[in-house]
Amino acid sequence: MKQLAIFLPVLAALLTGQGASAQSLLPGTSQFNPPPPPPPPPPQIEVPKVPQFDAPPSYNYKPIPRTSFGDRIARCLDDAATAGLGPADRATYSRSCANQ
């Protein structure tokens, strides 16, 4: 009788499908989690341009940008002071130097 009392509840539990649950859900979580996002695309690799030996050289014919007049005067006055010229000679030197 004792064995029958143990056997019947176990048999009933197995037949109803209420087996042991391996995972328990935390409160506030969803059973249906979305799939992870797809991985980003791989970086695009570009082949660098290789110079050709038989190609004609390309030259940059753009003129070098000229500094402003005030910058040229200041540089010429500094050069004249470094050379040890007096104030009158500095003015003459800076006028001829900046207009070149």
Describe it.
The structure is a single chain. The protein has 100 residues and is mainly α. It contains 3 helices and no strands. Helix 2 (69-82) crosses helix 3. The chain has helices spanning 2-16, 69-82, 87-98. The longest helix is centred in the first third of the chain and has 15 residues, at 2-16.
Radius of gyration, whole Å? 45 Å
- Mean pLDDT across the residues is 82
Global geometry: elongated
Task: Please tally the helical runs, counting DSSP H or I stretches of 4 or more residues.
Answer: 3
- Helix share bin: 40-55%
SSE diagram, text form:
Layout: H1 2-16, H2 69-82, H3 87-98
In short:
The chain is mainly α and 100 residues long. It has helices at residues 2-16, 69-82, 87-98. The model has no long low-confidence stretch (mean pLDDT 82).
Features:
mainly alpha, 3 helices, 41% helix, elongated
